[in-house]
């Protein structure tokens, strides 16, 4: 499996922006579909966005569509999540994950997970 490390989380005011990054190590990064998940206290982990191995398809949860953008740079083995117009409801621990599936529709399809990075959006 590929090892993943997230960075870029922090505290931001509502309406602000953050850019999360995820670096992959140990395996060929481009072999994996990649996803961003988040989990807030009292809520299930949800898929925020995902991207196929070659970046030809992206998915966004309805709650973030139009505000977040997922991207990847296979040459650098990195995954990014640009988050704009942040809302307090976006507050959660964000995880990047790698899947051998094509779309990575479900969390069970992901075999590698990062340690998570906290995103806190104040009102």
Task: Give an overview in words.
The protein has 123 residues and is mainly β. 0% of the residues lie in helices and 51% in strands. The chain is built from no helices and 11 strands. It has strands spanning 3-7, 10-13, 18-25, 33-39, 46-51, 58-60, 68-73, 78-83, 92-99, 110-113, 117-122. The strands form 2 sheets. Strands 2, 4, 5, 6, 9, 10 and 11 form a 7-stranded mixed beta sheet that branches. Strands 1-3-8-7 form a 4-stranded antiparallel beta sheet, with no helix packed on it. A hairpin with a 6-residue loop joins β5 (46-51) and β6. The chain is globular, with a radius of gyration of 13 Å. It starts with a strand and ends with a strand. The mean pLDDT is 95.
- Unreliable stretches (pLDDT < 50, length at least 5) are none
Instruction: State mean pLDDT (0 to 100 scale).
Output: 95
Describe the sheet with the most strands: 7 strands, mixed
- Which radius of gyration do the C-alpha atoms yield? 13 Å
Helix content estimate: under 10%
How many runs of DSSP E, i.e. beta strands? 11
Cα distance, first to last residue? 39 Å
Class by alpha and beta content: mainly beta
Strand-residue fraction? over 45%
Q: Which sequence of SSEs, written as H and E, runs from N to C?
A: EEEEEEEEEEE
